[in-house]
Predict the 3D structure of the following.
Amino acid sequence: MGETEAVEIDDILDDWFIESLKSYKDLHVYQLEHPTQIIEWTSGKTVCVAGYSSGKNEILELRLPLKLLADEKKSLCAERDFKVVHGGFSEGPVCCLTHIPGTRCVVTNDGLTSDLQLWDLGADDTDVIRKTGSLQGTSVSQAGSRIAARLSSPPQVLHGAQSSSVQLTQLGTGQTLYRLEVDSTEPLSSLKFVSETAFLASCCDGTVYLADTRTSAPPQASPPPGECALWWTDASAAPQCSVIRLSSSGQAVVSDLRNLGGALCRAQLDVQTSPRKPEDVTVAWAPALDGCFSVSGLSGLVQIYDSAGWRAEPQDASPLFQHAGHSVSSQHGDGSAPVFITTHVWHPERPRTVLSAASDGSIHVWDWVDPQTN
Amino acid sequence: MPEIKVTPLGAGQDVGRSCILVSIGGKNIMLDCGMHMGYNDDRRFPDFSYITQNGRLTDFLDCVIISHFHLDHCGALPYMSEMVGYDGPIYMTHPTKAICPILLEDFRKITVDKKGETNFFTSQMIKDCMKKVIPLNLHQTVQVDDELEIKAYYAGHVLGAAMVHIKVGSESVVYTVSVNKFALCHSGAAWIDKCRPDILISESTYATTIRDSKRCRERDFLKKVHETIERGGKVLIPVFALGRAQELCILLETFWERMNLKAPIYFSTGLTEKANHYYKLFITWTNQKIRKTFVQRNMFEFKHIKAFDRSYADNPGPMVVFATPGMLHAGQSLQIFKKWAGNDKNMVIMPGYCVQGTIGHKILNGQRKLEMEGRSTLDVKLQVEYMSFSAHADAKGIMQLIRMAEPRNMLLVHGEAAKMEFLKGKIEQEFNCYMPANGETVAVTTNPSVPVDISLNLLKREMTLGGPLPDPKKPRTMHGTLIMKENLVSSEQALKELGLNEHQLRFTCRVQLQDPHSDSDTLHRIYTHLKSVLKDYTIQHLPDGTVMVESIVIKVSSSAEDANAKVLLLSWSYQDEDLGSYLSSLLKKGLPT
C-alpha cells in the first residue's frame, strides 16, 4: 500500500501545474469537509460557505489566507491557510446565503421553501454562528428563494422565489415594506440591487424586471433576448450599468440597464450545451475589470470572457482565461460522477482574484494573469 | 468510580510549552515537556510546582514521554530533569532521541551565547538528560512497569513524531500531537481504527484552519526559484539537515529535468554527510518518495545537484544552494548569505521557523540592515521569502482522526478557548469533549470492564438445571465463587482449592401453640393448613412424624409446662431462610379451627 497523501512527484509536475507557474500570480487549493453551493463575502477578508446536504449542515465564515491579502509584506508571510473564524449549524441545506451589509447578519434559504433563516455571525468574543430568527416567505411553490441586500438603516432584505412574490422585508420587525407588482409566476434565477433602491429581478425564462422599492409603479419588463428556455443574469452597478443575460445554450447578450430591450452586443460562448438546472450556473461581472465577466457551470471550468470588442452581430467568443483547477485536481479513478463547479465569486476590489467551489468539496482561490499583458 | 485525570501544565488553551500530566490507574505520566518560545523568563517553562512544591519529581512521575523534537514539546526537558530533578525513564522514538540534543544544544547556544542569558541549562545537562532516555520502536509494546504499558505509532508530523497509546489494565489514553493526513492513510496507522481509548488527547492549534494543498506550496516554491534563476539571480535555501531539504531537492531535480534548466544546484557537503547518516538510521521513518530515491540511487547522486564548494559562492550567474544551518545563525549558510545579501536579484528562501536572536528571525521580521561582528552593517537587498512546508493536520484531519479512533472522551489542548467553541460543539455532537486551561484538571470517569472467566463445570451444571435457555432480557442468577486470580468456579471446587469444608447453616425456631389435640393430630392439622395456604410448595407428611415444606422440617411435641400447649420445632437451612421465617410467623398466628 503506497502513500496516498499526494501523487508522486512526477505526476504533480503535469502540464497544468507547469502552466500555472506563469498563468497564475497566486493559487491556493483547499478541501472542505463538505461541498458548498455558496460563497458570500462578509468583509474584504472573509467569506461564508455552507453545506447543502439534506440533513444537518455547517455554515462557516472563513478568513482568506494572510499571504494572499498581504501586499507589500507578501514574501514575509508564510500563512497560506484558510482560517475558520466562525462556525454554526443549520438543520437543513443552505442553498442561498446573503450577507446584510453593515451588520454581522446573514440570511439563508434552504432551496425547498421560500422561508428565510436569520443568523448572527458573531464577533470576537465567540466563534459560534447562531440562528436569531426566521422570516416567512409568501410563495407556495416548492422552489427556494433568491435573496438580495444592500446597505440600509434599519437593515432590510429583498427576497422571493417567483416574480410574483418578491418583497422587501424589514429584518427587525418582519414588516413588508414593498412588493413587486407582477402577475407572472416565473421562478427567479437571481435578485440584485443595482442602486440603493433599484433592483433587477431575473427570471429563469430570461425575462428581467427593473423596479424601484420607492415606487409602487409597475416595473420595466424586458422579455427574453433569445430562443432558449433557461437564462441567467448579472448586472453591474454604476457607472457601467451593464446587464448580461446568458442562456443554457451559451448565448450571451449584453444590454444597458437604461435600455434593457436593446442588445448592445451578443456572442456565442465556447461551452458545452447539455441539460442544466437553474442552480448549476453562475455568471458574474468582474467588479474591477470593465467588460470582463465569468461563467461557471456550463463546462467543467470557470471561464473569463472580455466583452469589450463584441459587436451587435453575434459572433463566437473565446474565453480570455480558463480555470481548470477543479477538474485537474479532483480525485480520479473511483468511477464517481465528474466534478462540477457549484459557484464562484470575484473579490470586490482586487481585480483578478476569484474564488471557486466544486461538488467534491474543493475550494480554490486564484489570482490569474491576463494573457494579453506580456 | 475509577477516573483518569488530565492536567495541562502548559498548552491548555494556550499555544506553546506543551506539557500534560495524566493520572491513570494509579500511574502518573508526563506527556511532552516543551518550552514557550515567546517568553524570556520563567514563564517559558511549564509550571512543575503543580506536581510538587519542593524538590525532585522522580517520586511523583512513573515516566515522561516526548512526542517529537520541536522545542515547544521538548525544549524544557533538560531543565525539568536536571534543574528541577527527575531520574525516571524518558521515552521517545529513535529519531527524536537523535535530533533532540542537537536542537537543544543549538537553542542553548543561541540563548546563552547570543542573548547572554543565565539560569539556563548547560551542555552537560543536555547530555545527562539524554542518558535517561529509553528509545521506542514503532508498534512495540513497552512495559514501563508491570502495570503500565506504552506503544508508539507513526504520526507523520516531522521525522520521528509519534502518537502514543498508554494502557493500565483496561483503561487507556492516546496522545497525539498533530496528525498528518498522510499518517491516517499510511498502512502503519490503521491501528487507530476503532481503538476506542477512554481519552484521546490532541492539539487543536490547527483545528480551525483549512490547509492549502501541498501542491500549491510547492508551486510557489518552484515559481520563486524559477523567477530568480531567470533573471540571473542566486537562491540560498538555509536548511536543517533533517527538515524538508531532501524533499525540496527531489522536487527541484524533477523540475529542472522537466523544464530543461541548466543553472547549477548545490548541496553543501556537511549537509550531505549528516543527512546520509540519519537517513540510513531512520529509513523506515521517511516517506516512500525519499526511500525510493535513497534505495534506487545514493541520496545525492542527482543529475542536476552537486556537492558545494565554498569557492562556488563567488561564481557568476544563477545558481541554487542548500546549506546549513537553517536559521542563518552561523556556519556556511551565513557565509553565503553575507556574500549574496547585497544583490537585489538574489533570493533567500527560509523554509521554517527561526528562533529569536538569529539572523533568520531578524530578516523574517523585515529587518533590512543587520549588525554583524566587528560592528559592520550588512545591507539586506536580496529578496527574502518565508515559506512553510510543515505537514500538520487541519480541521478535516482532526475530525477524521477522532472518528477513526472513536474515543469515549476527547480532550483538546493547545488552543484559545474563545476560538474553540464551534469545534467543541462540533465534536460534542458525536463525542464528549473537554478543553482544560493550564493547571485545570479534567477528571474523566471510566467504566473499566473486568473480564471474568467461568469454569466449564459450573457452566455445564447451570445448563443441566434446566429451565429456559439463557436470555439477555431475563438474566438468571447463578451461584459460584469468584477467585480473583483466575475464574468463576463451582462452590465445591472453590472449597477444595481453598482447603475448606463446606458448612451447612440450619436455623431452628420454636413456636408455641395452644392446641389440645394429640401430637399427631396437631401435626396433621398443620399439614392440612399449610397445604391450603402454600399451594405452590412441596409439602409432605412423613411417616417419621414430621411435616416437610421444601427443606423445612416441622415437628410437634407437647409442652412440658402446659398440657394444652404444643411446641412446634421448625428447622430450615440457610437457603430457605425466607420461607422459614414466613412459616414461623404464619404458625405463630395459630391454626384454623
Q: What stands out?
A: The longest strand of chain A covers residues 259-269.
